[in-house]
Amino acid sequence: MTEPSAARVSKPQGSGEGRFPRRDVLRWIYLTRIGLAGGLFVGAVFAWTAASPVRTLTATLVLVFALVLTPASYWYTHIRQRRVDMSFVYTQAIFDALLVTLTVDLTGGSNSVVAPLYILLISAYTLMLPLSGGFLVTAMACIAYIADVVWGQGTAVNTVVGLQLGIFVLVALMVGAITTKLTQTGAELTSVEDALQQLRLDTDDVLGNIPTAVLTIDGEGRLAYANPAAETLLGISADAWRERPVLFELHQRSTELQQILERTQRYRMPVSSAEITVSRNSGDIPVGISTAVLERKEGPPSVTAIMRDISDVKRIQKLRQRTERLEAVAELSASLAHEIKNPLASISSSVQQLELSSGADDDDRLLSRLIQRESDRLSRLLSDFIDFARIHIERSRELDLRSVVTQAVELIRQHPAYGEDTTIEVRLDEEPVIFDGDEDLMHRVVTNLVLNALQVAEPGKKTTVAVEAYNSAGRPALLGVDITDPVTLTVADDGPGIPDSDLKRVFDPFFSRRAGGTGLGLAIVHRAVREHDGTILVTSTTEAGTQFTVCLPRKSPAT
């Protein structure tokens, strides 16, 4: 990763800083400078007995300057982490060139054994500077060396000195070429790192916002990654479990998940599609899962699990299966009704004639009335069968659901089921709630739902009927409803609720817990809603009662 801007060595125009550690080079320069200045002082004071007081004083001053400049420079570049520009580097180079020249002068000039220090000086600053800067430091070192040899030592520039100067230039060329190559390579690596970092950020952003849960464990069963969806689904904290063994914790949530991860890792066989159950505080939820194997150079592979809550999918599948069952029952009902109703009418007519005959006694008349009563009951049941079988849209037109509900409720208030202690509260959207549908069918939907609520409501309780354009209030989509912009009809009662064992069967034909009920009322409602491409949902608790919600595709009012 690139360093913060305050910690970067300044990069002159035309050169790339790349990835070369210039601060590390500076640290070695500081150490070498202190060592060289200290050695020069010790040599002038203790080792060189012939040294003049001037040279001893010079060595002392150099040591003092080095002890002042070097700590100050280190504080500036490494402690404060301040920006290092080229003027700072050139200042250091000038001081070090003078230090090396003085050392060479005191140790024999052109015959000095420490003359190769110029090579170290040139190499260090050529690494830190662009190619032109490296040649500038080389030229400065060469001029200082020639000045020391010619003017300081009074010696002519001979072959040895010329060869040394050539070596200085050659070192500058070689180190400059290496530095340029390193800089270019570093720049390319930095570019690749930036691209990888951006890709990592983009990937984290995508994985962090998708609803699909992604979880990865390494070869030792430790948590390597979990996105927010996985944390929510499994009820774990990625920060708390990262780099820790997590399989046992996953076992607490889902034994099947642990087994799939272990099996995938052991046999290196990914799972393309499977269904597991994850335990949550609200109950068990079905989850679809697939896995991928990520091989490593050594040891067991890492395994990534991709999971998604499929509760809504399962719910829609059940609704679809229920619809298919209702269609099959409807066909059967139609056939039975036509086969039974005509003979039943003949039986009822014949019994009436027997009752009116002169030879009929009281027992005959009692039996006749019993047969007629049961025939009428069967006739009503067959009529319900026919109604259920013939549920389809006859005339579809634009309707306002508010008007349909208002008319149906007014009629229900005249029904015997509506007593003095019965209350119907109607809540209508302020704006028109427009949809395309069959008015007669929708009237039956509202009537059946409201009458069903009144029949189970306890005395003094109320039934609430509400109509609204659901998404106009800016709410999220309804769970289990694949209608983009629904209008909703809600009928809720304060009754005793529906047992969980019966809740899954309320729309099944012929299922009824009410005495005398045919079990076709809610089945007719379900079919009518499906004919309108809608969905009906039911929720029920013993505390709050039962609520039916009809969702229909909305049609925007014409402008």
Describe the structure.
The strands form 3 sheets. This protein has a 5-stranded antiparallel sheet. The protein has 16 helices and 12 strands. The longest helix has about 50 residues, at about 160-210. By secondary structure, the chain is an alpha+beta fold. Helix 3 (about 85-105) packs parallel to helix 5 (about 130-150) and helix 4 (about 115-130) runs parallel beside helix 6. About 30% of the residues are buried.
Helix content: 55-70%
**Beta-strand share of residues:** 5-15%
Number of helices: 16
Order of neighbouring strands in the sheet with most strands: 2-1-5-4-3
Give a summary of the structure in a few sentences.
The protein has 559 residues and is an alpha+beta fold. Helix content is 55%, strand content 15%. It contains 16 helices and 12 strands.
Labels describing this entry:
559 residues; 5-stranded mixed beta sheet; 16 helices; rod-shaped; disordered N terminus
SSE map:
Layout: H1 22-47, H2 53-79, H3 86-106, H4 117-128, H5 131-152, H6 159-209, E1 213-217, E2 223-226, H7 228-234, H8 238-241, H9 247-253, H10 255-267, E3 274-280, E4 283-294, E5 302-309, H11 311-356, H12 362-389, E6 397-400, H13 401-412, E7 423-428, E8 434-437, H14 439-456, E9 462-469, E10 486-493, H15 500-503, H16 521-531, E11 535-541, E12 545-553
Parallel strand pairs: 7-9
Antiparallel strand pairs: 1-2, 1-5, 3-4, 4-5, 6-8, 9-10, 10-12, 11-12
